[in-house]
Specification:
Strand order of the largest sheet: 5-8-11-4-12
Distance between the termini: 71 Å
Largest sheet: 5 strands, parallel
Radius of gyration: 35 Å
Helix content: 40-55%
Number of strands: 23
Length: about 950
């Protein structure tokens, strides 16, 4: 007998043995009881119970622990048919309550806000339906998407419940905008026409008024009715009579309640005579004016509808719900519903292999919805109310009815046991005769998925860099690593990216585990890879001393050489040049406008993009001279790409190359998409001039191309991703797992190969002989002309979209540098924690202007992490200026650069202009020390 059959048989046996009078409450067996009784591992029991539940053989009673009972026995005892499964209930009594016939429900009881913001409108609607003898004609006014059609439907349903309409009464909908430009056709559609009324009227036809006889005619966008149509409608309202188009006498009768809907002001969009005929005019408020509780209820209801469609519960992150609440704007309920449908469709595709639920997390939200989190955060009272309502855990939306439920995360699960998972999977696969190599691949994939799920269960997606790192290593280790990173920054007098912090933390974690388990790894390839008299090795030796003192252990010299490699890798990447792009077109400001649009769409970038306009009266020689001067003022050692429109501008490349002694390439027929793609290639992917040029030769706009399944499989099998760390072991393997997680979630199951820093280029050349290297991820950018994504971007989330963009070729505009949403979001998030008197949302535009002015004056751009720290300090300094409690700089300011202090003072003038606040001199010293 199979394991599942044994478990089902045991449940049947125990269910039959239970006396009828004891079948009450939360009855049944839990997974632990069954596991102990049958000698089966508990997680295997849980798996089989879920399968039996899906098959409808057993009933699940929610709670802690979850209990299971035989369905057939339960139906016999309760003398009822539970219908189609699966089945889940709170207790036995709840099943009995569902079997009691229900009286007709008041439709408005289901309307969210009926007893709150829509209470007056509901009372008006009820009065309109019940008013003798046949009700009051009604006009519903409201913005697009507020639910005017839904409200009309509820009025109709209420009329049926109150027996003002027959059960089979018609509800006819007509959108007056469909024929607004043809009044005759519109009127004929509403009232009908007789044969010969107009050309083509070969036979008589009844109109919507006759079709709606005995019920409701809902005229949407009623303001589109022409005046003659309005006249016929209000005459019908007065008398109940009408005539078809072509008839001269109004001797047709119908009993119809007219409900109109409009987005316009009735007094200006409808004739006054028509408005006077409508005694009941009600206005539906926009969703933005509804209470926060109502907004949340509406969002949850929409997710519940989608859960019913996909037949799965939907897990929605708290930050996602907050963003949806904050994104509510002019689109109202209609737009919100469309947004949620799209999110659920994407989540369904991402979780198509998950039998339990689908997940909507913050990462998958479009940018316009993500911005809603910032909007909500600006209103502290609203944010507090939403947070109090939602709590801190993800929200589980289940399909309506008792059939579906997802128990709380962790309520019926064992502590994470990696060894048990591996052992069970290996035993199972060996029993199937699968080879050892394939078993390793399968187990590695399963473990990655399991670990990812374990980490993601209760983590907020709106995390800081530190919080993301804490997902991987211990907090005490992160604290120590941050101290080391800060020391490195001061010791080497340069601003390191977070890549060193991440790489160092991961490696230190792996090193400590090896020491604890007394494992050894060969480091022969690393020994001697770093120059013995280099500053990097000197600093690494000092860091080794810190590790030894902090953890009370001996650090091998080779570990210090690894740290030195990390320091060198970060340094090499920071000083990299980029291709310069020159957009040159004929006209007064054509190039300037195109570059401005591209930069606003792209966000600011490390790539230099110059605009050169050539008015028709200007000679090519003058343009060449201007271009030369512009390029000599910046670094363009990696080359210049000219994007020109036509004519002489396409021929300046060779002369420019000779003048500047740098490679120059030219492409004609410039367009905004071409500029965007050039910026994307040069910035995100980081390839050289020839690589950018070759890629743009085949660029024909941002359009998709249908490929065959065979092509997709071929491309996927051929491509690999390379992860780069010191030895290709330890940290590289952790990074490999992270990248595989990203690829697995995105549906791109590519091979990931870890490599070490030593002989990096040789190893990459060997891999390139057998595979197409799609991208490299890690601590050092290889010389090989391949896309590269730094380690810190993968950890903090930005690298995921970058990697998907490289693999799929989709447009991804980087979110960093000037005007960066990432900088803005992280700064505002931090300031919300520190500011008491100033509103972070109001201050942020001024801080960003301060940042822009400062960037213009500094000789070298600051990194995003440094910019964030600087802006947060500046925001806090503003509050200290308000409370008159500035910081005091205890050191002497003689070592600070006067140019930096001057740049900070001039940039801070934005605060005195806008807020009439002056920062203390010591605040500038602290900021100057940062940069």
């Amino acid at each position: 007998m199979k394991r599942g059959e044994r478990i089902f048989s045991y449940i049947q046996e125990k269910s039959e043995a239970l006396p009828k009078e004891e079948i009450t409450g939360r009855v049944g067996l839990d997974a632990q009881e069954i596991a102990e009784a049958l000698g089966i591992l508990r997680n295997n029991v849980s798996k089989e119970l879920n399968e039996l539940h899906r098959q409808g053989k057993i009933v699940k009673f929610a709670g802690r622990p979850v209990r299971y009972f035989d369905r057939a026995r339960l139906e016999t005892v309760l003398a009822c048919d539970l219908g189609a499964g699966p089945y889940q209930f709170e207790n036995v009594e709840s099943i009995c309550r569902q079997q009691v016939p229900q009286t007709p429900e008041n439709p408005f009881a289901r309307l969210i806000g009926a007893d709150r913001s829509l209470k007056r409108q509901v009372e008006q609607a009820k009065a309109a339906i019940l008013y003798p003898p046949d009700g009051l004609h009604t006009l519903i006014v409201g913005q697009t998407g507020v639910g005017k059609t839904l409200f009309a439907h509820m009025m109709f349903e209420y009329g049926k419940v109150m027996h003002r309409f027959a059960d089979d009464a018609p509800f006819v909908i007509f959108n007056c905008a469909d024929y607004y430009n043809n009044p005759q056709l519109l009127i004929s559609h509403v009232f009908g026409y007789i044969k010969g009324a107009f050309t083509g009227a070969e036979q008589s036809k009844a109109g919507l008024v006759e079709e709606a006889d005995g019920g409701v005619l809902f005229l949407d966008e009623i303001h589109r009715l022409p005046p003659e149509g309005q006249e016929m409608i209000f005459y019908f309202m007065d008398t109940g009579t009408f005539n078809r188009l072509g008839e001269t006498r109004r001797d047709r009768h119908a009993k119809v309640l007219i409900i109109g809907a409009t987005t316009e002001d009735p007094d200006s969009a409808l004739t006054k005579t028509f408005v006077r005929r409508i005694p009941n005019i009600m206005k539906i408020p926009p969703l933005a004016e509804r209470t926060l509780a109502e907004k949340l209820d509406i969002i949850k209801l929409m997710f519940q509808d989608e859960a019913q469609r996909v037949k799965k519960p939907i897990r929605v992150g708290v930050e996602s719900l907050k963003a949806l609440v904050g994104s509510i704007g002019n689109g109202n309920v209609g737009q919100l519903k469309s947004n949620i449908k799209l999110l659920c469709a994407q989540a369904f595709l991402n979780g198509i292999d998950s039998p339990d639920y689908i997940e909507v997390d913050f990462k998958m939200l479009p940018q316009q919805i993500r911005n809603g989190l910032l909007t909500l955060s600006a209103n502290r009272q609203a944010l507090t109310e939403v947070t109090k309502e939602l709590g801190s855990d993800s929200c589980i939306i289940v399909p309506p009815g008792p059939d579906f439920h997802l128990e709380d995360a962790g309520s019926d699960t064992e502590p994470f046991n990696l060894y048990q998972i591996v052992e069970e999977k290996v035993d199972l696969l060996k029993g199937e005769g699968i080879s050892s190599d394939l078993i390793k691949q399968i187990v590695a994939t399963d473990v990655n998925v399991y670990v990812r799920d374990l980490y993601n269960k209760k983590n907020s997606v709106n995390m800081t860099t530190r919080e993301r790192l804490l997902k991987i290593v211990d907090e005490s280790l992160v604290d120590f690593s941050e101290q080391v990173a800060l020391y490195v920054q001061k010791r080497m007098n340069r601003s390191y990216h977070d890549r060193f912090l991440y790489a160092f933390s991961l490696h230190l974690s792996a090193f400590l585990k090896r020491v604890k388990s007394k494992d050894t790894i060969s480091y022969t390839e690393i020994e001697g890879a770093v120059l013995q008299d280099s500053l990097c090795l000197e600093v690494a030796m000092e860091i080794g001393g810190f590790i030894s003192k902090h953890y009370h252990l001996e650090v091998p010299r080779v570990e210090m050489e690894y740290i030195a490699l990390l320091l060198e890798s970060a340094e090499d990447d920071d000083v990299e040049d980029r291709v310069v792009i020159v957009v040159a077109t004929h006209g007064q400001s054509t190039a300037t406008s195109m570059v401005e649009v591209a930069q606003r769409l792209f966000g600011a970038t490390d790539v230099s993009v110059l605009a050169v306009d050539m008015p028709l009266e200007v000679k090519p020689q003058a343009v060449l001279d201007k271009m030369t001067v512009m390029l000599r003022a910046i670094s363009c050692l990696k080359g210049v790409l000219i994007l020109a429109d036509m004519g002489s501008l396409c021929n300046l490349g060779p002369i420019l190359s000779e003048r500047l002694d740098v490679p120059v390439r030219t492409l004609d027929m410039v367009s905004t998409p071409l500029i965007l793609e050039a910026m994307r290639k040069a910035e995100l992917v980081g390839i050289d001039l020839e690589g950018v040029y070759d890629a743009l030769l085949s660029f024909h706009g941002y359009e998709t191309r249908d490929i065959t399944k065979e092509e997709a499989i071929s491309e996927a099998n051929d491509g690999v991703i390379v992860t780069i760390c010191s030895t290709g072991q330890g940290t590289a393997l952790k990074l490999k797992a992270l990248v595989e997680d990203i690829l697995g979630q995105s549906g791109h199951p590519l091979t990931v190969i870890p490599v070490g820093l030593v002989k990096l280029e040789e190893h990459l050349q060997e891999i390139a002989k057998e595979h197409h290297i799609i991208a490299a991820v890690g601590v050092k950018k290889p010389k090989l002309n391949i896309p590269f994504i730094p380690l810190e971007e993968i950890i903090d989330g930005n690298g995921e979209s970058a990697l998907m963009e490289i693999i799929g070729g989709a447009v991804k505009l980087p979110e960093h540098q000037q005007g960066s949403p990432v900088v803005c979001s992280l700064c505002e998030e931090s300031l919300r924690k520190f500011l008491t008197y100033l509103n972070p949302e109001k201050v942020m535009p001024l801080l960003l202007e301060f940042d822009r002015r400062l960037m213009e004056q500094l000789p070298k751009p600051l990194t995003n992490p440094l910019r964030i720290r600087l802006l947060v300090h500046c925001g806090c300094a503003l509050e200290r200026a308000v409370t008159r409690s500035p910081l005091h700089y205890d050191k002497t300011a003689g070592h600070l650069t006067a140019e930096k202090i001057k740049a900070l003072r001039q940039s801070a003038e934005v605060f005195s202009d806008a807020l009439h606040l002056e920062l203390a001199e010591d605040e500038f010293y602290f900021m100057a020390e940062m940069i």
